[in-house]
Specification:
The protein has 446 residues and is an all-alpha fold. It has a domain at 178-278: Serine Threonine Protein Phosphatase 5, Tetratricopeptide repeat. The chain has 26 helices and no strands. The protein has helices at 10-23, 26-38, 45-57, 61-70, 76-88, 92-105, 112-125, 128-140, 149-161, 165-173, 180-192, 196-208, 215-228, 231-243, 251-263, 267-276, 282-294, 298-310, 318-331, 334-346, 354-367, 370-377, 386-398, 402-415, 420-432, 436-445. The longest helix is centred in the N-terminal third of the chain and has 14 residues, at 10-23.
């Protein structure tokens, strides 16, 4: 095009930027950015909006924000690009700040896309009051909520994520034209809030009203079945999934099915589902490991970890290491658990979380290696040590180690002098050592 002397227009650069975004071609995308400016489109709202989308897709929110800041004119599409980009990257508070700036500037009004994104940000941050204010404003501003299923579903999802299922159900009841997406949001909300009976009731009602469940519906409801041990319902859902031919097509669904059987104590069925999954990712392997761990088969867990994951080049994740270390802990395999923990950081370059350190305290505590547990605690930031001190204190009770227990108790009190768990654990430590008077004093103090 350039060789023939044809000058590009804004649509040319928008198309080029979208292509660079799809290809994740950062270097070429930045070059197109420069060329668009050189060709006189520095202030073109369409080109700049495409640039914002591109930089967010390149995980460069600062560059996306800079493009937005340099724009002379902002329309609702460019605001939405900025807000959506922050939400998709999980920078929800930045998205909410942009929304406030949008309202303050007053150069354009939010539309449905804006509100859907902001409600998602409110749900992710737990800002139910702000979400409620938006709900009230929408009711009073001419938005016909009952006719906009997308917006209503976003409201429902926001309330559910904030733990207010009463309001979520109220929103759902007001939707005139329900679809499978709104049903999914309601069912997922009940499951997220551990209201599994209500989720199963909604699932049955969904069938009554003639809606066909999707993969995401089955994933949520299988989790509910696993949580409440509803094996009969879980098996019926398994049959339904097989009739629809979905199991071999979606690995997330397959993993959810495995988790359900594991939680219901049926590892054989979980293993059968695992064999049906055509491509096994780390989540599927984690589900299988969890099943063997619950049966106390630590050696099997370690075999799968080494032979089926590590040796086959599958990258374990943080959950894999929690499951493996916990299995070693319950089986008393101290050296093996230590090796898994060391490999996590040294071989796989994964930084341990507080939960991993807690697993190591449990590993050493169960085996009576309390000195090693102290060394682990000292590797953790001072501000995060309280649950680890409590774990050590619990181990001191098991081994009647009053001296170390009193030291761990004092460290716990330094962090939280009202920690009732520390009083209880110290009392148990005294009692296990036959020091019943001191134990009683702890109970009085608590």
């Amino acid at each position: 095009m350039q060789e023939y002397g044809v000058h590009p227009c804004s649509h040319t650069f928008v198309a080029l930027l979208k292509t660079c975004t799809i290809l994740k071609d950062v270097k070429r995308g930045k070059r197109v950015h420069i060329e668009s400016a050189q060709n006189g489109f520095r202030n073109d709202v369409f080109v700049n909006t495409a640039l914002i989308h591109m930089y967010f897709n390149f995980f460069s929110p600062s560059e996306a924000q800079q493009v937005f800041n340099d724009m002379l004119i902002h329309d609702v599409v460019s605001w939405n690009a900025l807000i959506t980009g922050y939400v998709e990257l999980g920078h929800n508070e930045d998205a909410l700040l942009c929304f406030d700036q949008m309202k303050l500037r007053g150069d354009c009004s939010p539309n449905v896309v804006t509100y859907v994104c902001i409600l998602k940000a409110c749900g992710s941050t737990g800002f139910v009051e702000m979400g409620g204010e938006i709900h009230a404003k929408l009711k009073n501003s001419g938005f016909y909520l009952e006719e906009n299923t997308v917006l209503e579903t976003a409201l429902l999802d926001m309330y559910a994520k904030c733990g207010n299922m009463g309001k979520a159900q109220e929103v759902f009841d007001g939707i005139q034209t329900r679809n499978v997406v709104s049903w999914n949001a309601l069912i997922a909300g009940y499951v997220q809030n551990k209201l599994d009976d209500e989720a199963l009731h909604c699932f049955q009602q969904m069938y009554v009203e003639g809606f066909v469940p999707e993969v995401i519906t089955f994933i949520s409801i299988l989790k509910a079945c696993g949580n409440r041990g509803s094996l009969d319902i879980g098996k019926k859902i398994h049959d339904e999934v097989n009739k629809l031919g979905l199991l071999g097509k979606d690995i997330v669904l397959g993993t959810a099915m495995m988790d359900m059987y594991v939680k219901c104590g049926l590892l054989v069925k979980s293993r059968e589902v695992f064999c049906e999954i055509p491509v096994k990712n780390i989540e599927a392997w984690n589900s299988l490991i969890m099943g063997y761990a619950q049966l106390g088969q630590a050696k099997k867990v370690l075999h799968i970890f080494q032979k089926n994951i590590v040796d086959k080049g599958i990258m374990p994740n943080l959950v894999t290491f929690i499951l493996a270390i916990s299995a070693c802990s319950h089986a008393g395999l101290v050296e093996e658990g230590q090796m898994v923990f060391d490999d996590m950081e040294n071989v796989f370059c994964l930084a341990p979380t507080l939960e991993h350190y807690g697993c190591m305290i449990d590993l050493f505590g169960r085996a009576g290696h309390l000195d090693k547990a102290v060394i682990v605690i000292e590797k953790v930031s001072c501000f995060e040590r309280l649950p680890l001190w409590l774990g050590l204190l619990g181990a001191c009770g098991k081994w009647s180690n009053v001296e170390l227990g009193k030291w761990a108790y004092d460290r716990s009190m330094e962090m939280d002098d009202k920690c009732s768990a520390a009083h209880v654990c110290m009392g148990n430590t005294y009692a296990s050592a036959g020091m019943y008077g001191e134990a009683e004093m702890m109970n009085v103090g608590d």
